[in-house]
Amino acid sequence: MGLISDPSKRKKLIDFLEKSKNFLSIFGYTGGIVWLFLLASSEFNSRAYVSENALLPGLVETSYSEDSVAFKLYGELKKICTKDIYRQRDWISQNLISAGLEVYHQNFSCGDKGVGGQNIYGILRSPRSSGVESLVLNVPQKYGCDSNGGLAMMLSIVRHFMFQNFWAKDIVFLITEHDSCGVEAWLGSYHGEPLKGVVASDLTGHAGKIQAALVIDFNHESFRGVDVQFEGINGLLPNLDLLHVVFHVARMEGVLAKLNNQVIFLLFFCFGIEYESMMSRKTCFWNISILALDSERAL
Question: What is the pLDDT of residues 234-277, one digit of tens each?
Fold first, then answer.
């Protein structure tokens, strides 16, 4: 007869637990605290890892050699950013076209906010797939010179990407106006589900199903680090693999990284320092994750 099913043995077990409850409580509580500290050791945990094979940054060599192009484009932007918005749009479109992208425009207006503008996007078609999936790289265009850094960086990335032939997804380079209003208009038309109060023209160019989205927002020509904003509306969060990739690449390149304005420990047992001279911010417009119904990741 088992220990639990035998009444006499069950009574002995209950008596033992009642007599030893204080000792067992202290032992369990202490053991839990000790184990929590042991988890900080690499011998007892697997650390943060990328579970999506398609996103493994350690299997590729990170490269970017268009920094001189970015500085040149930034200088050109400084000369025209104080001009009218139409000149800026023409300049962006011409640079996308000269880089070899398919360039399209979308006019929109948001009645509830009383604003209207134009979105510009270029599509880099994948040479190794049929365009079933796509990535979105977005830079919000602000009036004045506040978006010069992000625009120059994006356009230099376009030129860098054009020389890579291993892309398995289409890449959409999206420049939006009026912050979330422009993103909502573009995504509503992209998915055929326009939002109430948003009037936008139809998109003449489409890519594949959106798998990931990244928004870059900074206004300087250089930066010492990045601040990754990932929290979305109503608690929406991106795929954790995407965050791991961002910080893994930042560590590989020696770039300081912060998460929601907090210092990230890039190495175990390394003390973080609050850097006040951060010159860059990657701000997430979570409309991408909300409206892109078939998108899995957004930053």
Answer: 777 777 777 877 887 887 777 888 777 665 544 333 222 222 22
| Fold designation for 57-298 | Aminopeptidase (3.40.630)
Task: Summarize pLDDT for 36-79 with one digit per residue, the tens.
Answer: 888 777 777 766 666 665 556 555 667 778 888 888 998 888 88
Structure tokens belonging to residue 286: 């979570």
d(CA 176, CA 203): 14
CA dist 71 and 82 (Å) reads 18
Predicted structure pTM score: 0.73
Specify the pLDDT at position 46. 67
pLDDT of 61: 67
**Which residue, 223, 280, 276, 257, is CA-closest to 48?**
257
